[in-house]
Amino acid sequence: MIIAIDGPAASGKGTLGRRLARHFGLVYLDTGALYRAVAAALLDAGIDPDDNAAAVAAAASIDPAILGDPRLRTTEVGQAASIVAAKPEVRAALLQYQRDVAATAPGAVLDGRDIATVVCPDADVKFFVTADLAVRAQRRHVELTGGGQMIEQGAVMDDLSARDARDQARADAPLTLSEHAHLLDTTKLDIEAAFKAAVEIVDGTTRA
Fold first, then answer.
1. How far is CA 165 from CA 32, 60, 88, 155, in A?
2. How far apart are CA 171 and CA 121, in angstroms?
């Protein structure tokens, strides 16, 4: 079984994806971490994230072992990742890795921006998870400050707004609601309510 979860940053899709993977005994992949890892590699080398050739080279040599590194969650890396992710060549370089994970038995949960539309268009269940910008900014602010970063919530909101614009406007694999995807708005839902709703959808879809 493959579960595809798309949505903007801080909508709750990562937390939901991890919970669903544990519940159904599936592999989990945060595909955004792939782009963050590429961005971090460029920043560490002092290379501008806009450098297309360097970004493609970093994507081709990515080390999956670093995908859980907390540093990938910093605002600096997130901003650079949004730039890197808009490059078609980088997305192409990472596509097969994502599909290989999706093909891992007994199945996988992948979350990102183009899972249902590009990476796994034939996924068994598709979700589009979203929330109001102000709510997402509050969530991300709590996450960042909880990790020791000093940043104003207004700056977080500005960053998310800019990333939303880049994700939705890019020519290659833009963030969009896939056909047959279940829309899950978490603005007024805590993780338990969102998780329960998602499980009911998965169970209902797989039984149909």
1. 16, 26, 17, 15
2. 18
The pLDDT value given to residue 66? 92
pLDDT digit string (tens) for 137-182?
999 999 989 988 889 999 999 999 999 998 999 888 999 999 899 9
Could you tell me if 48 and 92 are in contact, meaning their C-beta atoms sit under 8 angstroms apart? no
3-state secondary structure the chain: CEEEEECCCCCCHHHHHHHHHHHHCCEEEEHHHHHHHHHHHHHHCCCCCCCHHHHHHHHHCCCHHHCCCHHHHCHHHHHHHHHHCCCHHHHHHHHHHHHHHHCCCCCEEEEECCHHHHHCCCCCEEEEEECCHHHHHHHHHHHHHHCCCCCCHHHHHHHHHHHHHHHHHCCCCCCCCCCCCEEEECCCCCHHHHHHHHHHHHHHHHHC
- The tokens 């890019």 sit on which residue? 170
> Which domains are delineated in the chain?
2-203 (3.40.50.300)
Please answer whether residues 12 and 131 qualify as being in contact, where contact means their C-beta atoms are separated by less than 8 angstroms.
yes
**CA–CA gap between residue 48 and residue 145 (Å, rounded):** 26
For residue 128, the cross-strand partners are 6, 183
Q: What is the pLDDT of residues 38-58, one digit of tens each?
A: 999 999 999 999 999 999 999
Q: Is residue 187 within 8 Å of 195, Cβ to Cβ?
A: no
